[in-house]
């Protein structure tokens, strides 16, 4: 019995000007497995789809092979159009006849036509022998948990609250604000941070959708997108919530330069954050101020650039000069990191305000002079080649942001990975706030050191990502894909033949497989969490006896396809 209809898309001449559809259809008409072959102008246009659907239904055929463009172009849309009209996804197979055939063989039409036939033949046997995964759905819990109440976390919480989404805002300290409450001005506009912070805190207090939990400590996070289960303590009280999405905005910490440049040994050798504290108390009045950059950064222990140190020093140097025009201010640096035209203009502004920049070599750092209090800084000017001695009554050490201590604990609970420094850098290039775990987003300095303005922008962006998740209502596991379009199935284990070796669990990058003990026996079998599975196929490749399979891409269909090809 004929069981498959073949749909050939002309793509308005992009395909059939190279591939002879007449030749292809002549061959297909001789195949007893094919009910009919139909040519259309474009399968991604609704009217053409509607025209062929009626023919498919009249013939009683359920399975459809599509010869069109790549799934990374509009092929997935053609598949989705058929699914929207009642054809099961497992009964559809897409063959790339445009990018992978017509376009790359324009100078060889006969060869392209033969290749198209070969691809269609392989697709036919694949479609005939592939199986179908059992899909599951999850009802999205409408709440979102935000970890950290710094600028990124506050921005995320308020953005979600405007959508009417309940937000659980967890903060390890007793008050919200993060590092924003420790500084008085932010670069590059030198605007006051207090009014901005007070505005956020006022909105948080007034919002009926944001619930703030001070002195919070998370003990466990389980589950998956739409149905996380979180246990934590807030003060002395144990809490349990079930958010549909999680935003990590845990921030970072300031590196203390203990043992560097005589910090803690001489008076008035302070860190950048200690200078911020002095600014909060009033004007900083000195005769000669020296900033030293890259203290504890771009070194063996922390080879990265913290990105915010140079702009922060420029901001505070300008402020000292504006408050006390007679004060001499020097910034000693290895390089001035001010990427982009805005920060470059900020650097030029500092020069115009009389801030002096002196470059030193990494292997010849400045030397601090003094007995009990700072007296001078000796530095070899790498540009002029002369050693300069700068009288100074204040030395400010510009240190990097370092990862939060909580990162490791959070990463273990969420099965995420940290980079070699300890930041959450598990980021996809086109989706910089997402992680490999659906429903978990990262923003602010938890992922990499950023300014307060950048943290706020990222927090708002992460809120939009989380809102798009929890507002979906009911979601099918097939939509949880790491690539464009639907994933093509879920891993499936045959319990009777599973030996419980654990290879699949060891290689699964999405923590989607667990070993489960068989009732009454000292034996284990693999179980797949379909909501976490991304159909990457790692588990199939390491299964020693073939018990782990991708139904839509099983051994039988692949072997039949290879057999047909050769």
Characterise this structure.
The chain is of the alpha/beta class and 566 residues long. It has four domains: 4-129, 3-Layer(aba) Sandwich (Rossmann fold), CATH 3.40.50; 144-253 and 402-472, 3-Layer(bba) Sandwich (FAD/NAD(P)-binding domain); 256-399, FAD/NAD(P)-binding domain (3-Layer(bba) Sandwich), CATH 3.50.50.60; 492-549, Alpha-Beta Plaits. It has 15 helices and 30 strands. The strands form ten sheets. A five-stranded parallel beta sheet has the order 10-7-6-14-25, with helices on one face. Strands 16-23-17-18-19 form a five-stranded parallel beta sheet. A hairpin with a 4-residue loop joins strand 8 (185-186) and strand 9 (191-192). The two termini are 26 Å apart. The mean pLDDT is 91.
Number of distinct beta strands: 30
Give the strand content.
15-25%
Low-confidence regions: none
CATH architectural designation of the largest domain: 3-Layer(bba) Sandwich
Shape: elongated
Oligomeric state as shown: single chain
What structural category do the secondary elements indicate? Answer: alpha/beta
CATH level-4 homologous superfamily of the largest domain: FAD/NAD(P)-binding domain
State the strand order across the main sheet. Answer: 10-7-6-14-25
The portion of residues assigned to helices is: 25-40%
CATH structural fold name of the largest domain: FAD/NAD(P)-binding domain
Evaluate the radius of gyration.
Answer: 31 Å
């Amino acid at each position: 019995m004929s069981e498959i209809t073949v749909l050939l898309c002309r793509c308005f001449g992009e395909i059939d000007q190279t591939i002879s559809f007449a030749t292809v259809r002549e061959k297909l008409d001789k195949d007893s497995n094919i009910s009919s072959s139909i040519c259309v102008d474009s399968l991604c246009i609704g009217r053409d789809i509607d025209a062929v659907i009626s023919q498919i239904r009249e013939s009683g055929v359920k399975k459809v092979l599509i010869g069109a463009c790549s799934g990374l172009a509009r092929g997935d849309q053609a598949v989705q159009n058929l699914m929207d009209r009642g054809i099961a996804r497992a009964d559809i197979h897409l063959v790339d006849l445009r990018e992978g055939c017509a376009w790359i063989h324009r100078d060889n039409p006969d060869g392209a036509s033969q290749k198209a036939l070969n691809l269609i033949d392989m697709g036919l046997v694949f479609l005939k022998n592939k199986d179908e995964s059992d899909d599951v759905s999850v009802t999205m819990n409408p709440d979102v948990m935000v970890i950290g109440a710094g600028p990124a976390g506050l921005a995320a919480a308020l953005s979600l609250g405007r959508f009417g989404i309940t937000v659980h805002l967890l903060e390890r300290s007793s008050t919200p604000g993060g590092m924003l409450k420790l500084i008085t001005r932010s670069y590059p506009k030198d605007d006051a941070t207090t009014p901005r912070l007070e505005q956020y805190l006022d909105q948080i207090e007034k919002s009926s959708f944001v619930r703030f939990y001070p002195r919070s400590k998370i003990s466990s996070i389980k589950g998956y997108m739409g149905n996380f289960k979180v246990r934590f303590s807030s003060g002395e009280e144990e809490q349990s919530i079930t958010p549909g999405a999680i935003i990590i905005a845990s921030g970072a910490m300031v590196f203390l330069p203990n043992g560097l440049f005589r910090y803690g040994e001489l008076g008035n050798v302070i860190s950048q954050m200690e200078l911020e504290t002095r600014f909060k108390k009033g004007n900083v009045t000195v005769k000669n101020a020296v900033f030293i950059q890259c203290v504890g950064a771009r070194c063996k222990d922390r080879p990265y650039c913290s990105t915010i140190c140079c702009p922060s020093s420029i901001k505070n140097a300008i402020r000292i000069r504006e408050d006390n025009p007679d004060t001499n201010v020097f910034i000693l640096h290895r390089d001035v990191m001010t990427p982009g035209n805005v920060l470059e203009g900020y650097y030029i502004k500092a020069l115009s305000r009389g801030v002096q920049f002196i470059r030193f070599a990494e292997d010849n750092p400045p030397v601090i002079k003094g007995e009990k209090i700072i007296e001078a800084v000796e530095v070899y000017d790498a540009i002029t080649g002369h050693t300069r001695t700068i009288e100074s009554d204040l030395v400010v050490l510009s240190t990097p942001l370092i990862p939060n201590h909580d990162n490791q604990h959070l990463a273990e609970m969420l099965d995420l990975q940290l980079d070699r420094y300890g930041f959450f850098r598990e980021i996809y290039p086109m989706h910089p706030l997402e992680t490999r775990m659906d429903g978990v987003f990262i923003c602010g300095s938890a992922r990499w050191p950023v300014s307060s303005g950048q943290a706020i922008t990222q927090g708002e962006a992460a809120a939009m990502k989380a809102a798009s998740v929890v507002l979906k209502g009911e979601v099918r596991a097939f939509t949880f894909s790491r690539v464009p379009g639907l994933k093509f199935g879920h891993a499936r284990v045959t319990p009777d033949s599973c030996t419980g070796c654990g290879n699949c669990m060891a290689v699964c990058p999405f923590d989607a497989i667990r070993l489960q003990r068989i009732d009454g026996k000292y034996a284990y079998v693999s179980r797949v969490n379909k909501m976490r599975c991304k159909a990457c196929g790692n588990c199939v490749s390491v299964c020693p006896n073939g018990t782990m399979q991708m139904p839509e891409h099983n051994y039988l269909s692949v072997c039949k396809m290879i057999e047909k090809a050769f």
